[in-house]
Amino acid sequence: MSVSIDPLVAPLPAEVPLKESPLVRVIAQLRFPEILSIGQQDFVAPFQEAIRPIYPILRQDQAPSEVIGMGVVTLTKPPQNIWRFGDADGRWRVSLAPDFLALETTHYVNRTDFVERLKTVVQVLDKYVKPAQADRLGLRYINRLTGKAVDDIATLVRPEVCGIAGTAAAKHAAHIMSQSMFEVEGACVLARWGSFPPNAVIDPTAFEAVEDKSWILDLDMFSSAPAPFGVDWIAEQTRRYAERIYTIFRWAITEQFLSRYGGKS
Fold first, then answer.
1. What distances in angstroms separate CA 28 from CA 20, 83, 197, one per listed residue?
2. Vertex 22, ends 13 and 256: CA angle to 5°?
3. What is the pLDDT of residues 146-165, one digit of tens each?
4. Which of 81, 94, 176, 232 has the fewest CB within 10 Å, making it most exposed?
């Protein structure tokens, strides 16, 4: 895309599937006013039965009372129980807590598949939990390049994104991190990218560290404006977020990126 194109309002480009995609995780999260009954097994059981054919593995987890990332400790409210429903392959997971529902995957196929999966789970939430409203809706795509690709980053992403990572000074950096927040289409886009040494990670709650240097492109679109709870509305907003994030992603990368990861533009 040309430097004159604004990816925050530009038309959606044609999707180019990547056979060796560096996309490591996609997360959608829907927050709603707290429902204390979700902490009770009897209350959650019908929800589990409805999604169990697809997500048969149940684990009970607990949200941490603090999150540590990039040397910063963020305090949260007291720990709460979270029900984690996974598929048999460990590639998809639904999380249900007293104040949120999340769907995440490490095996993303395309936005249509993801939105349909989310819609199915939200329909079950609407039937058995009945949240009064949606407090926040967010969608996040995390891409990670490793090894030789980090050395070649100046050819894989546009100069505005590459920044200092594409200069000789980069070899002296412990890590390089850029962050920008944009307001668009009644929502916000948080874009983060940068280079990290082995065993370092931008957000340990979202994905694991690797034993190699890495370069991360983390795109998160969300709205914190309360809205009436509606299954179709949530699905449509998620689809819109996915399209906008993809437009930004395509703006950020080069033709060499597409070729390197098995795509054809």
1. 22, 16, 28
2. 60
3. 999 999 999 999 999 988 87
4. 232
